[in-house]
Structures
1.
Amino acid sequence: MAESRLPHPDLPPPASIIGPWGWMRRNLFSSPLNIALTALAAYLLWVAVPHLLNWTLFNATWSGDTRADCQANSGACWVFIRVHFEQFMYGFYPEAQRWRVNIAVLLLILGAAPLFIRTVPNPVKVKLGLSLLVVYPMVAFVLFKGGLFGLPNVETSRWGGLLLTLVIAGVGMAAALPLGVLLALGRRSKMPAIQTLCVTFIEFWRGVPLITVLFMSSVMLPLFLPEGMNFDKLLRALIGVTLFQAAYMAEVVRGGLQAIPKGQIEAAAALGLGYWKSMALIVLPQALKLVIPGIVNTFIALFKDTSLVLIIGLFDLMNTVHNATTNPDWLGFSTEGYVFAAAVYWLFCFSMSRYSQNLEKRLHTGHKR
Amino acid sequence: MNSPSTARAPLSEQSMIQMEGVHKWYGAFHVLKDINLTVQKSERIVVCGPSGSGKSTAIRCINRLEEYQRGRIVVDSKELSNDVKLIEQIRRDVGMVFQHFNLFPHLTVLENCVLAPIWVRKMPRKQAEEFAMQYLERVKIPEQAKKYPGQLSGGQQQRVAIARSLCMNPKIMLFDEPTSALDPEMIKEVLDTMVALAEDGMTMICVTHEMGFAKTVAHRVIFMDSGEIIEQNTPEEFFTNPQSERTRLFLSQILHN
């Protein structure tokens, strides 16, 4: 039976499912339990937030140069941070030479900025990225350490604060990722010697705490080295951190390698690509993209773990802050110090996390399997 | 499609592939049993047989995606060995199309096509891209060059896979069930591409159950069962006058479905 019928017009949705009221119904008041939880959360916020805001902002002291300036207010004494700020950034790096650090940071920002601009063509980005990984560390090292081109020598033991944290984290990340990739490939290798070597390496370094590694590197290692032969404490810490994190990175990358179908490797092989080319062009780009969350997770852990170097007497951001809180002129301000340190760590880690989310979105090519 | 008589010009006596007494085991399982096969230049061979009969394994031995334990294989006068360099050299000249396409999902269609010419044949990028566009035109999808494989239909992906192989300018093409993973309406577009390739005189070995394709294009049809070549013949003889009981059973099953 032929029956012609006009299409039903689209009606506006009922007010209860759209807008802020609809959102609240769905997310805050959908069941008696949720109503109770919402009420509890609101109560806790009401108790905690005003107190927190009063301490950090409204009752805080912002100006002044001595602890006496903070006596009048009940809130945080941010003067403590202001007075020590340079020390938190540079540690005991000689004041007259701090411009060298600033230049290195400026170079890094200028060099890295084009990598984050989408209109820059990819080949340029690759070249820039490689030179940042290879050339920049040498330039930065010369700037920091000096002893060349008339720059006065600054011992690594005087590097400190956020500068040292960034040096350890930067070197650790830049070295642990490629090493981790090689270890992951080695662990999947068909050659028994290489496979055993990689498995042993990974399981050894994953099995010991980082704090032990650092402790061993600074206390035990000199005992095994011949008399008079001693190498830089910072270098030892860098090697320790790198090898430790590379083991974790290897397992993260291996997870990605396992997710790549065998057909991809076969197709690459059938085209005549050798092992290294098929890994570099076909397998790793896909595998690394899959494990961006895991890689960034490891990077964030690495960044925060750099604070453990205080155990071997290096003055990174954490240790510098800790040191400032023991300054007899400024006793009693450890809360402000640690809140500041936490905020700095959080800022860096959160930025990494956001960048990785952005990267995942950008690299998505519409092939969800 | 051309008529069978014009499609099958007489062959030159130049053998491209020789398999002699090839045996292969997966552990204790004897997958290939004494495979002997010679393929002439420009010859087109269709391999069929029930699943698990070793037909895919057999052609995958030719470009050494599978190892074999006994016998010898000579491809384009080069005998396969364990020498990695030699294997890579042979693979350059032997194109392969897979059942599941195996395109590289992180690269665009064009990048899929130029990758091997640039990195294996050391062709300049610009030249490789021109070359690739020609082949994409031949498989009738030049307009998809900038898309990613995930955005294409199965039939289009398989045609890209064929173009990707052709970009290496191979002397031999191996097809491993190229239409088995496709929806029925996409099979024809892939088969048409393969027929066009056959008309250009490409040496082809094709594992397929597309009997129409075998009848029109193949010089020889090979029937395999449980790791052995049971029968080989011209398509006319093979389909009208099968010699062995197993072949007859197989044909009755696939032709009546």
2.
Amino acid sequence: MLKKILFRNSTNLQFIFATLGAIIGMTALLLSLQLIMDVQSFHSNEEELFGPNSVVIQKKVTKFTSIGMNSTEFTPEEISALEKKDFITDVAPFQSADFKVGISEVAGDGLPHFYADMFFQAIPTRFMDIDVNWDWTSESEYIPIVLPRDFIMIINYGFAQSQGMNQISEELLMAARLTIHIEGNGKKEKMIGRVVGFSHKISSILVPEPFLTHANNLYGNGRIQNPSRVFITTKDNSYGELDELMNDMNLDVNKSAIDVAKIKTIIAIVIGIFGIASVIIMLLSLLGFVQYSQLVLSKASYEIKTLVRIGYAIQRIVNTFIRQLSITFGLITAGSVAIMLTIKLLLVNPWLKENGIAIAGSSLWITLIAALICFLLFIASNYINIKKAVNRLGSE
Amino acid sequence: MLLEFKNVMPFPLKDYQHEETSVWKRGFQINFPKKVLLNASSGKGKSTFVSTAYGLRKDYTGSVLIDHKPIQEFSLEAWIELRRTRLSAVFQDLQLFPELTVWENLILKNDLTNHKSKEEIDSMLDLLGIGDKHDQVCGTLSLGQQQRVAIIRSLLQPFELLLMDEPFSHLDEKNASIALELIAKETDLNKGGFILTTLGSHHGFNYDEELKL
């Protein structure tokens, strides 16, 4: 009966607008939150879209380099200058082999007969963009090797055809062992190696750092070499500064790495703007609801005053309002979650799938908790507002 | 319940020439249960008196005390508790819910106090001659009928003091007497008292005390 008295005069138009606003705002908020989490779980070619922004930098080879007038090596001074840049959080020079390397097949492992001169480089494990078994000790059965993904393309679609060789699949290459020929410091050695993965980001032939250190000590010719390639990790959204640095130092950067950094920044900005807009819509609809309850309160002011005069407790009157609003907000929250899920499952997920982006099924829990927090925020702000108003009316 | 008015002067009445016998001049102190008549002509502040004692008006100088405590210091919660258990009122403007039926108006109060059974409420309605209006919306009743609903509502709670502001102004003498008889009976059941303000008629009743404005 209290409900009948208190909501008798409430108009529906304002209520409908406030409800619509709340549903739109909340859906947008939940959707952008869910999208941010989905994007974070993107894995395209083993690279995390929101993982660390690591890029390889090297100096451009110019005609002066070729005639020996300038070097592509990074001096220790240049490396410490890189370390001092604000937007660079990590610097690691590539370590190069100080000995001759060649590879050939291991007979019987399915690879055609071949021999190729090679080189080895190593980087700290934290910069590896793929997850492979990268441990090496002097007792290890084989040396793990990571090749650039492009390498196998060059072999299969260029080299193999021109040489009349069979093409080899990634799986075959990874299954087969390789003979590693090492020559340097007056010694020659054969070892077994195995390709354990393909890197999208690093166009080099990588071996574990401990192995290269060990081999350089044994077979190195003792030349002190400055690194010619350096791995750096930049802060998010700093590709502008990176661009500037490239121009200043005449650097060459893996283009796709820069593109990924750009895409990351753009996606982050787009979702961020969407998120901020939805927060604003939410706040406006919250305001709309506070106003709506203000309106209901002022239209029911006679009833509230009279109820207090005949002995009704403030809390009981407030509870009547809150119970009613809780039902409304509950439906709004549930509706928003349902719409968000529908959009995600029927529109976003198929689109991502069509475009070849796999989502590692990010959890809904955080979004649901966010919805609950919105719900509680709505109730709390209305509760405070209604309690204040009923107290004021009751005291009149 | 001890009700005391000490030098109480409502702002709207302060420029008015009050008689020496007026409550506004000499104050009073009554220890209820007592049945009191407050007799005054129009404009002397009967409604102001009731509203002040009921804690609705605060625009006065001096102090009103209930059981020696100044009522201006009562919290809203204390007032609500007081109005549910010790102090009841019939307002001049009745303060009913016009969109609710007679029965809903009464149940709204009785649900809060559980003071009377449904049968008792029904017999009160019959006694005051509005038993057939049970399910009629209050807003459609005549003022006299609404007054009787308001009177019954004021009796649906325990009270030590019942304040009534011209409760019979739209009733004929016969119906007023029946209503006053019911009020007196319920007052005695509650071991309480009342203050009845009127424009002059005694409604044929013997009061314990009489106040003037």
